[in-house]
Amino acid sequence: MMFMFKFLENKKIINHLVSRYGFSKEYLDQFLFLFKHKSVFVISKDKEEVIKKILNKAVFNAGIEIFADKKHFVPSSLGFSAFCAKEIKYNFVVLNRDLVVDFLKGKPFSLEQVVNRNILSKGYIVCIYDNKIVGTCLYEDQLTPNIAFTNKKAK
Amino acid sequence: MTIELPQKLFEKYSSFLGKDVDLFINHCKTPYKAIRINTLKIKDIKEIECFKDMNYEKVIFLDNCYKITSNVVGLGNCAEQLLGFFQMQELSSMLPVHVLDPKKEDIILDMSAAPGNKTSFISEIMKNQGLIVANDIDANRSKKLIYTLKKNGVYNTVVTCNDALKLNFDFLFDKVLLDAPCSSEGFFLKKNKGIHTWSQKIVLKKAILQKKLIKKGFDLLKPNGVLVYSTCTLSPEENEEVIDFLLKNDSAVVEDIDVRLNVSSGLTSYNNKKYDASLKKAIRIYPHKTNLECFFVCKLRKK
Fold this sequence. Notes:
The structure holds two protein chains of two kinds.
Chain A: E1 6-7, H1 11-21, H2 25-28, E2 31-36, E3 39-44, H3 48-55, E4 61-62, E5 64-69, E6 74-75, H4 77-80, E7 92-94, H5 97-105, E8 116-118, E9 123-129, E10 132-139, E11 143-145
Parallel strand pairs in A: 7-9
Antiparallel strand pairs in A: 1-2, 2-3, 3-5, 5-6, 7-8, 9-10, 10-11
Chain B: H1 7-17, H2 21-26, E1 33-37, E2 56-58, E3 65-68, H3 79-82, E4 86-88, H4 91-100, E5 107-110, H5 117-125, E6 131-135, H6 139-151, E7 157-160, E8 173-179, H7 185-191, H8 200-219, E9 221-231, H9 240-249, E10 252-255, E11 264-265, E12 269-270, E13 273-274, E14 283-285, H10 287-290, E15 295-302
Helix pairs in contact in B: 4-5, 8-9
């Protein structure tokens, strides 16, 4: 089934990004927020008028998906990696390279294994490696990588 | 390992390579892997852990590109590759983007974009600003394109999945990249696999499509806009003849290409046919002269 991309009333999404992860509103201002079915996307704001013209037609993808489920704020790991790590003030963990490899394989890990952390509450947490966002994981009893495509051969 | 060309292809190559044809065949398989640092995520190759124990050399004619000279297996499974810190890509296939010379303020159409390596390279140069419309006719290939863009952190791109001949927009583009579907001679020669499936019939069939595509791409271009046409094939029917067709039917001019490589000029005649003299400004990339994979690139401007 084909869903059209539409411009999103972005207040709720921006409030979530600001309150959950500490993004500054100024940083988020460079993006246009779009939605398609349950997903939320961001696209560079530069050519807003042209983007509006294209979105009148059926397009396959626009910008990068940041939430796979806008109702429950389920992040899209790869999409989040487009954001700047410096913008994340809380609800993050810092991984070493070995943990990044495990993350890519989809292996859960514990809080004791991470290099650094600043967690305010359970839920989706940003994973940072080498000052870059590498994805997100779900923090409950342990940290479970939130990735659609795992790679068992990751090294 | 020696590559055995179909007789007709050998004769075709001999007609424009002359006595160099054997040298050419022996150089088709490049002895290294090439990578491009994704500057949307990384500034320097030294930041990438998996290259710390490898030998590599910087490519002089392209920024942020390296030849990996160590014998490496499974580079595609390195964590940093899976995270989009770098992209494995053939060097000659990066040249069309270099020639396109994207700017931050441009609106660019990539007509045949999957799997997305060139699109993400364009976005990198534009620093995720401006706008790219990346199109591919095939839905599965378009999914691969979206994955590549997502992995590389590209967010200035809209992906469409249409027959490029039916593309229709309410605006025109500053630049168009047509990396045309082709008979893929260069790919087969590099892999030393599948070249036996080559036939002149396929070449001529592709050439018909390529002429329609270049005409369509040119129609979508603003006045003074730039279209870069490329293929990974060396058959003149799919290259110079396609450009010659456009020059005869549209207000296009061929522009010089500035690249620090020992490239060869486009052909101005082949098989008793004369092409426009300006086609000598197009470039042919021969492995024995450049140590790169076969490629053809031409830069055109709309008058």
